[in-house]
Amino acid sequence: MNFCLYEISDINKLNKLIKQKPNFFAKKHDVEIFHINELKQGFHHLVFHVADEYHFGTKHVGQQVNVPFSQYVNCFVSLKSSYILIEFIHEHYSKEIITLIEQKTKAKIVKREITKTMMLHVANTVNGYVKTLEYTNLDDEEEEITSFTLEKFNSMQDIKDIYYLLLSVEDKFVSLNRKGIISVNNSEEDYLIKFTEVVINALDCN
After folding, report:
1. How far is CA 80 from CA 52, 84, 133, 182, in A?
2. For residue 82, what are the contacts with CB-CB under 8 A and spacing of at least 6?
3. Helix, strand, coil % (nearest 5) of the chain?
4. Dist CA 30 CA 32 (whole Å)
């Protein structure tokens, strides 16, 4: 499962988001909050419903059939952090969800890059083994190294910027991209709850 990292301009306005009343029945808008659940005190899971359509047709005849379908997008927020993790399925879905969150909270939501400091903090928090590290050194040369310990990672003095980090954590793979993309090769509910809470708290280190 892939997530994108966003940040809200006013952490106090997250309360407005989690106090929204989900709509389980008739959908009045293309994007709505379908489900809100407090997983732990101050840590919430939201599910957004996006109403979409498949369009079918032919080259000569044109569009003939529209088939509605529902897309559900996961989101995790902590009232202790300004960071928000939104599942990435398609950029258009993400933009519509961000617009809805901004309307509900009256706050600005921006996509965040993941800095070197943030990546180091996440790696140490989850106690991961480094499988792949792509970075630039102090001479602005691109480097890639594989399979080494967290101790070596912490001791490296020639890292200027990190572009990509792949970690092995509890027999799962977790990756972080400087562009703000976080991926985990596991979609089990219990694991995702634990993973997302730990990552949001670890990212909040700057």
Report:
1. 33, 11, 30, 20
2. 7, 8, 9, 11, 204
3. 25, 45, 25
4. 7
Please give the model's pTM, rounded to 2 decimal places. Answer: 0.90
Q: What are phi and psi of 53, to 5 degrees?
A: -140, 140
Q: What is the C-alpha separation between 164 and 5, in angstroms, rounded?
A: 15
Averaged pLDDT, groups of 10, the chain, 206 residues long: 96 91 68 92 94 82 82 94 96 96 96 95 94 96 95 95 94 94 86 88 78
CB within 8 A of 201, min separation 6: which ones? 78, 80, 81, 125
Q: How many helices (H) and strands (E) does the chain have?
A: 5, 11
Contacts of 54 (CB under 8 A, 6+ apart): 66, 67, 69
